[in-house]
Write a structure and sequence with these properties.
The complex is a heterodimer of chains A (90) and B (180).
Chain A: H1 7-10, H2 25-48, H3 66-75, H4 84-89
Chain B: H1 5-38, H2 42-77, H3 86-118, H4 121-127, H5 132-150, H6 157-169, H7 171-178
Helix pairs in contact in B: 1-2, 1-5, 2-3, 2-4, 3-5, 6-7
The chains are: A mainly alpha (90), B mainly alpha (180).
Chain lengths: 90, 180
């Protein structure tokens, strides 16, 4: 970003035209690609179930909500004190 | 905004340092996330999650915010502007997106680090790692880097309008400064 824009960088894209420049092809392609990626992510989230939080990382262990987890940790009753059977049931 | 070349160089140095530091910190975070996924050792998984939380809050978040702020400053003190060129606009949008996702994701990391601190071995083995968010973040940061280095052509309508106004006001000066 340090080098100031030069003539060659704006030539041919409307800098010297009387009418406003059109959107460059690379921008259009990038926007199409970004829209496609967002669509794919949304579809995957819908198919998988859309779970987005600590529980997504816990295979077979239901993670409590973030605030509950923090309170639980502060209370001194760590998850480690739970019998493993109880953990598996959750 | 007109600033001295020395101040502009200082701002550029700061922006580059924070931006490259952000990428490096994300790579380090990915290494920790990978070790949490692959390790069979409960202590390694616990240590990885605790380190991910610390790295995230005390390294990645400050670097991300600093890179965003210095990027905004750079756009204001150089002729590139913030909305005049597509590559600057897209780089800004991607940086804001990456920072927002980071800030939304970090409470989850803290929550899981809390679980890792207290959990027993069996629970730690099921905790897994954190690869998707840092992986996606790294791709976005590399895209921003490519945009900043190559600066692909393309002026926005706003940028064109501003340039036309500037040329009408001071045609001679603009012509001189526009020379390569």
């Amino acid at each position: 970003m340090a080098d100031p824009p030069r003539r060659r960088e704006t030539a041919g894209v409307g800098a010297d035209r009387a009418s406003p420049p059109r959107m460059p092809r690379w921008v259009k392609l990038s926007l199409i690609l970004a829209a496609a990626l967002v669509l794919v992510v949304l579809i995957v989230m819908l198919i998988v179930g859309g779970g987005h939080g600590p529980s997504r990382h816990m295979r077979g262990v239901q993670a409590p909500p973030i605030s509950v987890t923090a309170e639980f940790a502060l209370s001194g009753r760590g998850l480690g004190s739970h019998p493993s059977a109880e953990v598996n049931r959750r | 905004m007109t600033v001295t070349p020395g101040l502009r160089k200082f701002a550029l140095t700061a922006h580059l340092t924070f931006s490259v530091g952000w990428i490096g910190a994300v790579v380090a975070y990915l290494a920790l996330g990978l070790s949490a996924v692959t390790s069979q050792d409960a202590q390694t998984v616990r240590a990885a999650w605790i380190a991910m939380e610390l790295t995230g809050w005390f390294v990645i978040v400050p670097l991300a915010v600093a890179a965003l702020l210095t990027g905004l400053i750079m756009s204001l003190i150089t002729p590139w502007g913030l909305f005049r060129h597509y590559w600057v606009l897209i780089a800004l949008m991607l940086t804001v997106f990456a920072t927002a996702i980071l800030l939304l994701h970090m409470p989850t990391v803290s929550s899981l680090a809390d679980v890792a601190r207290q959990a027993d071995g069996a629970t730690l083995q099921r905790l897994g790692g954190d690869l998707f968010h840092p992986g996606l973040g790294l791709v976005v940061l590399l895209l921003i880097t490519v945009l900043n280095v190559y600066k692909p052509r393309g002026m926005t309508r706003y940028g064109w309008r501003k340039q036309q106004e500037q040329r009408r006001r001071t045609p001679a000066t603009t012509e001189r400064t526009a020379q390569p």
